[in-house]
Amino acid sequence: MPPIPPLFALSIEPSGSIICTQPTSKVYLLTFQSPPDNRTTPSFCKTFSLALDIIEHKYPRGVVVTTSAIGKFYSNGLDYENAIKTKGYMQENVYPLWRRLLTYPMPTIALINGHAFAAGFMTAMFHDYRIMNPHKGFLCLNELEFGAFLKPPMASIFRQKLPRPETYRTMVLESKRFKALEALREEIIDGVGGWEETKIFIEESKLVGRGESGAYGRLKEEMWRETVALLDQDEKAAQDYEDGRATASTARAEAALNIVQAWEKDGWSGRPKL
Questions:
Q1: Which of 148, 219, 268, 271 is at 20 to 30 A from 226, Cα to Cα?
Q2: Strand 73-75 and strand 115-117: pairing?
């Protein structure tokens, strides 16, 4: 089969790109590469969002499939060091992309070709459907391993989309790495395979015409209202929430420590000194 000419191509700084092709009628394949591992940098997020805007406003409604040209990775997550030190990193870059995907006015499919870790896994979850390579790659929330917290929209998307709390618990509190077949059993993904299997999935699910009525995006906005509201919080409201939670947690820890110290002072009698 001859190469499919791109509909358009966009640059991701410093050396990446997103290329849009139309392998079959009204199915738009966005293939991104941002070496070495497709981190969700500001340029990656803004370029991804621009690609979605172009498809919506310049082409007929259909289905958007996203995948990576880097075989090992779908996305390896945030540019973490910059994310924690850059004011507005999430609200100005990552959250707008996630909101766009979550409420996009036509079906979206993440074709997960390799590893999707942390924010890369989250990005896949903000799509409507997920198809994963059965031979390579893990899905993993590994925040526990490097001491990061889940921000409210990050937690909410899994809480809303995973069918079983046990899966969520294992994912967050054990940083479990899910291979494709296990992810399918746990209903994290909707199928396994590559492009051919994704094309069959689109045909069997009759996805191409789903966005034509104009209601698709608004229906999703209501379906996922909790997560949408958290993504829409401005930076100050989000920071106030996190600060309040941190302050309350510190106060509870200090109160518990005081009780332990009083118990020790009481001569290890086994009776708390209240």
A1: 148
A2: parallel
